[in-house]
Amino acid sequence: MNRFFHFPTLDPVPMSKPRPPADADQPDSPRKNLRWGFSTGSAATAAALGAAMFLRDGAPPDKVLVRLPGGGDLAVPVSDAGRRARGGVWALVVKDGGDDPDVTNGARISTTLEPGRAPGLEIVGGAGVGRVTRPGLVLPPGEWAVNPTPRKMLADNLAPWLREGGLRATVSIDRGEELAKKTLNPKLGIVGGLSVLGTSGLVKPFSNQAYVATIDQAMAVARAGGATEIVLSTGGRSEGLARIMRPDLPEECFVQIADFFHAGIRLAVRHGFEIIGLAEFFGKAVKQAAGFKYTHARRHDLDLGFLADRLPGLEGAGREVFLASPTALAALEVLKGLGLLSAVPAVARLVLRSARDFAGGGPGLWAAVFDFDGRPLALETDGASPGQAFPGPGPVVADPNRGEGL
Fold first, then answer.
1. Is residue 125 a contact partner of residue 193, using CB atoms and an 8 Å limit?
2. Is the pLDDT of residue 378 over 90?
3. How confident is the model at residue 298 (pLDDT cuts 50, 70, 90)?
4. Which is nearest to 271 in space by CA: 280, 282, 263, 279?
5. Ranked by mean pLDDT, which of 57-61, 324-328, 387-391 comes out on top?
């Protein structure tokens, strides 16, 4: 009997549940009433099944059951199906990412089935599916960006039809090339469209594990390309500023780690980078200086007391005003008013101390801290001389054309 896989609704965290220690990496937190979705790999597989059933029955099915890699079946609606002029059959599935804010949510993914030229299943990328051009990914250069698990899902689910001979499956994504510009694919060297992804067939909303896996993948591409230095930023704007400062480094050497300070450093060490740079705005720098492994505001409040004890010249009434600041931006304005911007390099040195604790004694480190308008406030190094880290920095200015994230 088939077992249907129902999208789970995550249970709320009991109020009495103890919080992890302050220096713990942030796990995926249960969130109330968030709906799970299915991956692009599941959508492509469902479309393939829909096409096969259309060929068998002469009519498109309302839904198909996709066998998941971990067992169980996922019911996926089929939007449409038909025949190609050249003789193949196709079906269309609209990807449902649940409550995960991914650019592929709502993407129209189709799979066309045609007789194969050899036994087995041949998987081809159609319009909107990218092609790998750089080493370091799970697929070699020249291959279509349909990852191993979706490939296995397609083969496993189409097994009954493959007994009758080989099949050629062409996966296409409507507007895939346009949507891919909003992903990391261009930086990873995947050109022409989106990747067909998924390890479980499902999409967990706001998965921290998935974000860390993306960081890991980006670093693998940079390392495979011969990079020995990696620059970690906390968002689009800080990456843009770092790239202006480091025009000597190629695009793949800049990786956004968001709030994953500890995970980003540890991954960079694991990949063997000789120099690790950090580029962030003052607010994130304060939390990194305090040694927080995960710096999201949901997880850690701004700890100005820790910082006030370590900033030279901050005392008396000025210290009290600083401690009363509701935000990092307000705290920085207090330092400006007191004429104490010269104390900000101490924050960068504390960031490096935290980074050294995470990295161990291996790589050289540097940290650049920016004002919220993009002006540089501090550049400190540990084991990487300024000349080595910044051979010829250009002027640092705010770049409004970068992403909104800090």
1. yes
2. yes
3. low
4. 263
5. 57-61
